[in-house]
Write a structure and sequence with these properties.
homodimer; 4-stranded mixed β-sheet; 16% strand
Amino acid sequence: MSAPTGADAPGGADAERWLARAVQLATENVAAGGGPFGAVVVAADGTLLGEGQNRVTRDLDPTAHAEVVAIRAACRTAGDFSLAGASLYTSCEPCPLCLSAVLWARLDRVVYAADRHDAEAAGFDDREFYALWATERDDWAHPRITEHRLDGSVAPFDAWRASAGRTAY
Amino acid sequence: MSAPTGADAPGGADAERWLARAVQLATENVAAGGGPFGAVVVAADGTLLGEGQNRVTRDLDPTAHAEVVAIRAACRTAGDFSLAGASLYTSCEPCPLCLSAVLWARLDRVVYAADRHDAEAAGFDDREFYALWATERDDWAHPRITEHRLDGSVAPFDAWRASAGRTAY
């Protein structure tokens, strides 16, 4: 990279350092019996907030992707359910689960090294799930998704709106 | 409903019972200071595997949506990271995070009561995030998402393929 580097430069030296750490976490996780994914969350000031390794098979948790684990750890560090302003560096392109977690965590930036095609070549469904998201949900063969309204379907939202002590997110 | 009901009928009596339980969990969660969402995972034989309530603000975890919490609980009950054959009943249409979790958990079926528009009316971003997913990611204004390949980007996948003891998922 010949461009100027800095904490806020997506392709800068700091990005390379954090990405290298994410890749290291991923490789180490394979040696520990886990999936080949690692991620770190870094605050706007360059402070490490959290690290994650894929723990799906070790924790029997299909949502324990490296990025999700890193986001959860970072929120514990920050003491906040919002990571606005922070960045996620991840060894591989975030799958739809992880990118959705990025949205809810209000992260500002994502930088990834390998991509969905590398993941697919290693036997993972990231690209397939991206393809699903690119089609109409009504056309998905699996899973079956059905709306079934009940009397009282919106009662939880009515309760929410009436709750003086609610914490929005 | 005048259609025949049964454990496998999306709109049947069992579905209504499980949906009502999910809605009850959602409403109770508001009273406990949490978000207005609840969900249950039910095995193919009709056994309850796990329940979940939104715990984003209480646990400082932006991924602790009711469906994710229920899936994690169900996996602990099942002792498996796959919930193939099982169904998710949820008080509100799963957001992209939760629907992606459904995909990775290999759930067979999703039935929901309220929808993304009800959630939006209560101040939640589900519909907005669905709209994002319906557009090209390169056109997203936020977050910034950058690929940055490194030497060694695919090293974790090489290690994975070389690992005799890997557990695929």
